[in-house]
Design a protein that fits this description.
The chain is mostly helical. The protein is built from three helices and no strands.
Length: 87
Amino acid sequence: MILLPGQLQVCVKGEYVPRVERAVYTVKERCRSTCHTILYPKYTMLMVILLVQNMVKWLNAFSSKGGISEEMSPETIVTGASKLDFN
């Protein structure tokens, strides 16, 4: 399987990077929607940390159309974990 070389973009501190801002917005949106479905009146710091970790884990578990590889997920590329089998 061939992986295309990734591009590195160097940014100055405080510079607006649309791709990173969109990724942060996506994680926040997923966390908010999960919090609204759980219906706890308050969340501990540990709950918030684990919620964000879980959202990032699941976002990295699937490959994206514009990513380095359309067959392998980011998690598979970085950690070498096997593909998810839903059967």
